[in-house]
Recover the amino acids of this structure.
């Protein structure tokens, strides 16, 4: 069974103290974010930089290169489930 | 750990933000990023060191900034990454966003700036999903 999840979470900045990342319902023309998990399960979302690339954060002209961009969170079902 | 967290909303066929780093680009899937903090005054701290490895002594915090609670609208584009070689399908998040960032402290003098400045975050990140058992599962946006 596939559970459809509207929207999701992702995070960016590297090496920062963050709490949980969650998904929420989209407004307007919502995109449908789908994770193939069983009914009743919560999909775990993970993220990191695309292999072979580095994210950058430029602040006040200082270019910072991220070594890692770990992202974790839970997707929260905001839309209907379907098979 | 502080009281800050992210939430995302994704929409279909929304132009990238007119005020963003790459404005007015029509994309299939765009995302809003909401940075929220439960405690007033909290933010996501960024420490800039005078070395590439902050573990190396005598690493000194050159500048400290705080990413303020804010909404970053339509500056993240989502695309599908099909499964390859028996793997699962993933999602790519293409980020090119202006981020309000506030100087807190630092020994970098004028280099660090002052007050709230507009920083630019750019990168491509892979989003994957796992189920309760920890197994990788397909994910896509449509």
């Amino acid at each position: 069974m596939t559970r459809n999840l509207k929207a999701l979470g992702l995070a960016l900045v590297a090496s920062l103290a963050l709490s949980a990342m969650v998904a929420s319902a989209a407004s307007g023309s919502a995109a449908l974010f789908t994770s193939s998990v069983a009914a009743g399960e919560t999909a775990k979302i993970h993220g990191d930089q695309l292999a072979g690339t580095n994210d950058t954060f430029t602040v006040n002209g200082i270019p910072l290169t991220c070594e890692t961009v770990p992202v974790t969170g839970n997707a929260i079902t905001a839309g209907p489930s379907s098979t | 750990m502080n009281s800050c967290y992210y939430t995302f909303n994704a929409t279909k066929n929304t132009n990238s933000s007119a005020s963003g780093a790459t404005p007015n680009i029509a994309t299939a899937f765009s995302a809003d990023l909401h940075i929220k903090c439960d405690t007033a005054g909290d933010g996501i701290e960024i420490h800039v060191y005078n070395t590439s490895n902050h573990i190396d002594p005598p690493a000194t915090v050159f500048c400290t900034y705080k990413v303020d609670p804010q909404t970053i609208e339509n500056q993240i584009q989502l695309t599908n990454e099909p499964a390859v070689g028996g793997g699962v399908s993933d999602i790519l998040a293409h980020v090119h966003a202006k981020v309000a960032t506030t100087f807190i402290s630092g020994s970098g003098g004028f280099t660090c700036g002052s007050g709230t400045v507009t920083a630019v975050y750019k990168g491509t990140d892979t989003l994957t999903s796992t189920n309760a058992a920890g197994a990788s599962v397909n994910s896509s946006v449509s």
